[in-house]
Amino acid sequence: MIHVVKGENDWNKALSLADRADVYHTYHYHQLSKNSGDEAILIKYEHRGAIVLLPLLIRTIEGTIYKDATSVYGYAGVLPVNDNEHFNCAHFSKELNTFFKQENIISVFSRLHPYIKHQETILSQLGGVSSPGNVVYIDLSQPLDEQRQNYSRRLKTHLNKARKHCYVQQGYNDDHLEEFMALYYENMRKVNAKSFYFFSKAYFKALLQNNQFTTDLLICRLKDNDKAIAAGLFTKCNGIVQYHLSGTDDNYDHLNAVKLLIDYTRITSTKAGYTYFNLGGGRSSKDDSLFYFKSRFSKSFEPFNIWKYIVNKEAYLVLEEQFNYAGVEEVKQEDTNYFPSYRRYLTT
Question: Which of 76, 85, 221, 281 is such that its CA lies 20 to 30 A from the CA of 163?
């Protein structure tokens, strides 16, 4: 049976059934992530003792009767409440497919969570799951000295230099948030980031002030004059730490301040009893320079999987042709795998 959860209390109650729910499954994060006109829902599937949760953002498709579904920015996917070895994938697929069709949802996309088991199996009969790359994580269950042994030699040298000139402060007030935002926005402008990544101040404040997960705002300052040269946001939920966002002052790249923030988070999170510290992958999950930077902290990798499912192929192809005809003649090479493809041509 499929039950659609929308209210905060019912959402929280459903999530409380699962041991491994992360920040990206929470009601609060979904409310932060949705755009105007989007609807955040938590699909709860129950059958013969098995329970599976699936959080999604439902979006209208302008000028049509159709909708599509996507996951929040981060790692979500299906969340099995119990490890049922006799889980009926066929029944789950039939029920979920029926729901999508009833709601006129023609396509579904979700970024899966690298540390939640059985997601690929549960989704095996709906669309396809693929892995465009890996994510890097630090196993916080290991002793601190063993974790550091996995650091590259150069990283250890960089951290020693950073500690000589810098210190890390826990941010807690509006001035600290403003410092983070200035550094983060400047980095986004430097890389010509899409407007999506220019989150509002209200978004950051709501990320920091909620009762469903913890967000640490960390600032790296120069010892000489207390100048902020790097800052980062790290979320913490149910044993999992996520490297969410960061920004740096390019004038002080030689001090490797972000590396100090990551190392500080590793140490404090280990002492607090967390299990995983997810550093994420590279740009677009490809093994590029960003991935190389993160891999200096650990050689523990997990596949970053994405789920794509076309529910209504006929409507999907019609929309693809319709929006393509509306004036877009060329598609950049990096957009050829965009899903759903018609969203390349929409402004929202």
Answer: 281
